[in-house]
Design goal:
Length: 177
């Protein structure tokens, strides 16, 4: 079931995706998500070394690094994949789309911090090369433009772009994505 939903999510979001076999065999972002799902399962049953080992192999093969401790929802799509980094305490909602080079990174290096990485709501889109740093929260249906640097919370439905990211007026949304 999960694999079928993942394939449908790619077909919905990527106009270049022609059929399921192509997605299964050729989409490195999809391979990274499937590798994450297996490594996350190992992480949850306390086989943390093997979870990290698998995530390292997946990173080597796909160019996408997803820590097995991250929590990622359904229908998650990484388009083009290369260079995506998702940290250990990141939380990603359902139906989220990340483009290449996105980082969901931490700003705190103190051990034991409960959450050091971002939390993305449902239906969020993050443009290529965007950095979302620290324990910030991005609300449902938010959009973050390519190259943006986000260090503050973003409310539901808002669109942010720039360095440091600022809210974009409604009439200029397409310019930044």
């Amino acid at each position: 079931m999960g694999l079928i939903k993942d394939i449908r999510a790619v077909k919905t979001r990527d106009p270049a995706a022609r059929h399921a076999l192509e997605i299964i065999l050729l989409y490195s972002g999809m391979h990274a998500v499937w590798g994450y799902r297996l490594s996350h399962l190992l992480w949850k049953i306390h086989l943390k070394f093997f979870a990290r080992l698998l995530s390292t192999v997946v990173r080597f093969l796909t160019g996408v690094e997803i820590h097995p401790g991250a929590r990622i929802g359904k229908a998650f799509v990484i388009d083009h994949g290369m260079g995506v980094v998702i940290g250990e305490t990141a939380i990603v909602g359902d139906d989220v789309l990340l483009y290449h080079g996105v980082t969901l990174g931490g700003r705190v290096t103190k051990k034991g911090a409960t959450r050091r990485h971002p939390k993305l709501g449902n239906n969020v889109v993050v443009g290529a090369g965007a950095l979302i740093l620290g324990a910030v929260e991005v609300g449902d249906d938010a959009k973050i433009g390519a190259g943006a640097v986000v260090v503050n919370n973003i409310k539901k439905g808002e669109v942010y772009a720039g360095v440091a990211a600022k809210m974009v007026p409604q009439g200029q949304i397409e310019y930044y994505l």
